[in-house]
């Protein structure tokens, strides 16, 4: 009987935590898929999660437009200030933070993030990236095929990345085909 009562209490505690989490808002955020003339995309290895690679992303400041935030964050995170926005994902994409994720204090008041994504073409080389302009987000960066990002990102972002790849993969190919015709 004691075991049954203890189990019920655990279930109730978990439900209460979930209800509290569900009441929290999403943090507005932008994500940037930066691609080069080889059709590869830029990913960075997270400083706070070694082995986890992701696209640059960051918060939207109060009263800031998403496109402006994307260009600002791109510069702050990887030092790119010469990219060209090629496309914007049509919707905002939310994701929840896992319960066991160690969050910075300013992120603890959010349930997760809701993101607006941008596709950006950039002619630079990987050595042109500057990772210490602002708070260092990435240990290193590299270019990889867009399809490989699914195997490098943390599990709770995979659904977001799948949508981004499905939307932006064809746009990258079309952009590069059109650009090559102009050469």
UniProtKB/TrEMBL annotation:
GO biological process terms, semicolon-separated: nucleoside phosphate metabolic process; ribose phosphate metabolic process
GO molecular function: bis(5'-adenosyl)-pentaphosphatase activity; guanosine-3',5'-bis(diphosphate) 3'-diphosphatase activity
Taxonomy, superkingdom: Bacteria
Database matches in PROSITE patterns: NUDIX (PS51462), NUDIX_BOX (PS00893)
InterPro entries, alphabetized: Nudix_hydrolase, NUDIX_hydrolase-like_dom_sf, NUDIX_hydrolase_CS, NUDIX_hydrolase_dom, RppH
Pfam annotation, one family: NUDIX
Gene3D superfamilies per UniProt: Nucleoside Triphosphate Pyrophosphohydrolase
UniProt domain Nudix hydrolase: residue ranges: 25-166
Keywords: Hydrolase
Cofactor(s) listed: Mn(2+)
Similarity field: Belongs to the Nudix hydrolase family.
The protein's name in its UniProt record: RNA pyrophosphohydrolase family protein
Organism of provenance: Leptospira weilii str. 2006001853
């Amino acid at each position: 009987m004691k075991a049954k009562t203890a189990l019920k209490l655990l279930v109730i505690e978990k439900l209460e935590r979930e209800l509290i989490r569900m009441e929290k808002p999403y943090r507005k955020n932008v994500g940037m898929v930066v691609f080069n003339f080889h059709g590869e995309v830029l990913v960075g290895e997270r400083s706070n999660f070694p082995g986890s690679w992701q696209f640059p992303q960051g918060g939207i400041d109060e009263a800031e437009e998403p496109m402006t935030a994307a260009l600002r964050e791109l510069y702050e995170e990887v030092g790119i200030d010469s990219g060209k926005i090629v496309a914007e994902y049509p919707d905002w994409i939310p994701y929840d933070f896992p319960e066991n994720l160690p969050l910075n204090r300013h992120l603890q008041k959010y349930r997760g993030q809701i993101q607006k994504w941008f596709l950006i073409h950039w002619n630079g080389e990987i050595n042109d990236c500057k990772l210490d302009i602002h708070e260092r987000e990435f240990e290193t960066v590299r270019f990889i095929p867009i399809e490989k990002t699914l195997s490098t990102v943390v599990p709770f972002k995979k659904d977001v990345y799948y949508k981004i790849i499905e939307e932006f993969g064809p746009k990258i190919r079309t952009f590069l085909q059109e650009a090559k015709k102009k050469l």
